[in-house]
Amino acid sequence: MTCVDTKTKTMKTYLKDFEIRWSDVDANRHLANSAYVNFMSHTRVAFFEDHNFSLSNLAKFQISPVIFYEHIYYFKEAFLGTPIRVSLDVKGLSEDGMFFEIEHNIYNHKGENLASCELMGAWINLKTRELTALPSEFLAEMDTFPKSSDFRTLTKEDTRKFGKKPVKLS
What we know:
Layout: E1 2-4, E2 11-19, H1 33-50, H2 55-60, E3 63-74, E4 83-94, E5 99-108, E6 113-125, H3 136-142, E7 147-154
Parallel strand pairs: 4-7
Antiparallel strand pairs: 1-2, 2-4, 3-6, 4-5, 5-6
């Protein structure tokens, strides 16, 4: 759920609560890497649903989100049965809505930061399989997104900031 500060009427961090299940732990008996990714993905889908980016609305325009990268930093373990909270803040958006950058943080029930993730993605046209700007129906909704304190306007160059390029297997 997105929180609204009742005094300032500004958007605050989006938060989603989970409980760690048996299927979420690995051989070390702590939260598995894949579970972190799944909890963050679930949080993004819920966030987009809450902001009228539902699968049915996106399907009308034949668009869907794609992720370019996820950088995860682990700080502290989480264990079976432990409640966790996943946050979402938007760190960047392009003017046309094509690109987005999101930051997730995972917290335990004591509010301790267990992990942090930075990711970048875009919207893809499902017919042409090419990146696409958001239709105007979605652009206005982006103004309501909770933004990080270091929010910035993204450009295509931001998607290449790490200099990674595909390398063909010889």
